[in-house]
Amino acid sequence: MTSITESAETAPPPRLWLLFGERRGDNAQVLALARLLGWPFEIKQLHWDTDYDVQPAEAGASLAGLDRSASDSLAAPWPDMVIGIGFRSAPISRWIAAQAGHPVVNIRLGRPRTELSLYDLVITTPQYGLPPGPNVRELPLPLVAPDAAEIEAARVRWRPHLAGLPRPWTAVLLGGPTQHMAFDDLVAAEIAAGLQQFATRSGGSLLITTSPRSPRSLPDLLARSVTAPHFLHRWRAEGDNPYLALLAEADQVVVTSDSISMTADAAALEKPILIYELPWLGRTKKPGLVAGIKRYVRERRERRGMAGLAPDPLDRFYDRLTLAGRARPRRNALEFTRRLYQSGIARRFDPAQVDLAWRPQAAAREAQRRVIAEIRALWRARRAG
């Protein structure tokens, strides 16, 4: 049991369970929400059978796919509130609520891949493409709750390595290729040239770090191509990582468009964010008449949404299917980036335009506050009932 000071407004707090899976980034979002709520919580670490292949809509309220011998015990005393993320634990959170014998506030993050009305609150982000619904709340960015002590320790540890570099400092967070975005040597060379031009115009320094998905050739290419004052960290699984220190010390941040998590980290520290847009490869075509029709309707809805068009009857039909868990929009990084620009949280990276006075809007922080207030209100109403 990990305790966080609870808000007096909602005392006594609920018995809160956090369902952790096997993805560190997903777990971080669940933990961030718990920290923002400020209530005591208990982490339930879940593991899955190696041959797990059950969709939540098929599993219902069950422990389908759970490796019970490797997972934490799910037993009384049952929680008053459960928070999970993704689709694998979606049936399990419903099973927990069914066992409790009292109403349980069931909160899901991301996209549960089943009927959304089965949960009290679904907290999502733009890349998932979930339509508006009575219990759907869309945040501009994934939830992040920075640890002030951890950040300060990182600053102290890495400040001597950065001393002497001229200000302003631009942190550069580089991701890697994805199924739909290119990041080869040609793209890396363009990034290096753009960063060099940007640093020359700003008169400052680049604080560059690669990441686990970055191409192996990237650090050497950057070392050869960037002559402006800079610090370059080659990511590796072992050893110290200056990531937090670079974020904390930076005056602004450049991040490649493949990494939603790094963008969220920068926004949590209220840094001006510039998105380097990686080339979009599009999506591969699926054969077959039925698959083609589904793809057409889904991508039509996606395109119209990105163009700012009001939903027409076919769009609304697809949205109803999505809310019912019978359709699943694909992850859309382009829409995620567009919405960041629209809300004023980020700008597009342009090496020819340096605006050191620009500051981002607080849209992400305000959206988080509204969701936290709504969850507390849910608990007050459930407790009163």
Describe this structure in words.
38% of the residues lie in helices and 14% in strands. It is an alpha/beta fold. The strands form two sheets. A six-stranded parallel β-sheet has the order 2-1-3-4-5-6, sandwiched between helices. Strands 9-8-7-10-11-12 form a six-stranded parallel β-sheet, sandwiched between helices. The longest helix has 22 residues, at 363-384. It is globular and about 65 Å long. The protein has twelve helices and twelve strands. The chain has three domains: 8-138 and 366-384, Rossmann fold; 148-280 and 342-354, Glycogen Phosphorylase B (Rossmann fold, 3-Layer(aba) Sandwich); 289-329, no CATH class. Mean pLDDT is 92; it is low at 1-8.
Concise structural overview:
The chain is of the alpha/beta class and 385 residues long.
Report the mean per-residue pLDDT as an integer.
92
- Write the CATH fold name of the largest domain: Rossmann fold
Structural class: alpha/beta
Reported CATH architecture of the largest domain: 3-Layer(aba) Sandwich
Kindly list the characteristics that best describe this protein.
385 residues, Rossmann fold, six-stranded parallel β-sheet, 12 helices, 12 strands, globular
Strand-helix topology:
Elements: E1 16-20, H1 24-37, E2 42-45, H2 56-59, E3 81-85, H3 90-100, E4 105-109, E5 121-124, E6 136-138, H4 148-162, E7 169-173, H5 185-202, E8 205-209, H6 218-225, E9 230-233, H7 243-249, E10 252-256, H8 260-268, E11 273-276, H9 289-306, H10 313-323, H11 333-343, E12 346-348, H12 363-384
Helix pairs in contact: 4-7, 5-6
